[in-house]
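Re: the 337-residue chain
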Amino acid sequence: MTLWTAPASIAASSGSISPLPAELLTLVYCHLPSFYDVFSLASTCHRLRQVWLNHVSTIYKHVARAAITCEKHARILLANQGGPSPESEITMVSDVARMMQNMQAVDKAILQFESKIVRKIVRTRGHRTEGHYGPGARRHPPYLTRTERPRFIRSYYRLWALLIIDDPVECQSRLQSMSLKQLLYLCAISWLPEGMGPGEETIESPVSPGVTVGFEPAQRYQGRRALSDLVVEQTESTYRRIHGRGMGTSWVIAMNSGYDVFSVMWDHWQSILLDFVCSRPSEEPPYDREFHMELWEDDSEEEIQRDGQSQRRFVISSDVSMHSGSVAIACRFTYCC
């Protein structure tokens, strides 16, 4: 008991948490809301930095749960960038820093997508919007919803990871492992009007037939043009394998024509997408349409993004109570050690 209370009195009198035992400092790190806070706290003094360096794996496991949306897919991208495999532990600060950089790129892509695409959604093509966007809603909001956002992030990470795979066999194998729903989302993301990740090379190309006027086609991006063709080809192949027939002309045109393909991302479109993915004619008389829900339920795709209101947050410079046995230690997060 003395071992815990003595440092607490020192911390209370000095206004610093650095004299606390490493175990408690690790606990403080584990309760931070983001890795930006982790790096900020680690930068305040040598001891706090050393605690972070010595306990990267433990801190990562706790903070990543709330701080990294679609962490599974973020780890796959990191592995393709030369980081550890998704099944192994994160033990290097450099890997956490790389994931933060990737998150910043995704956040920037979302802002650009909302500005250039989402805000321009005027029509919902007869869909009821109140059930998706709130009472009285007559159109899509000017931002991605809490379900659309993780849908976008997962697909963005998937496409980014595919772009940096050098082996065409591995790339094709990964596409073949995806569900029809995942491939349709991937088709949409491949048409993003901005570069994907740092350094995506651009080329000049004419606007394809059917592209909305003023829409910048993804074909401008050299690597993505070839990958987009592969995604469309695999999507058509997967649909034919599942349903025994080709995709409708309107879907094929949409996948190759830019703006319309983004429809699959919207919440009010999911019922149409669900029917398209899961419904197929019966092979037995009277040949009614059968519904196969197992074709939709894959990979926890409907995971809700963890947002600030649903997560426990700790604010720098606020009082936090931590308990070890029966001893409560009041700490003030100060950046002076």
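The first strand starts at residue 279 and ends at 281.
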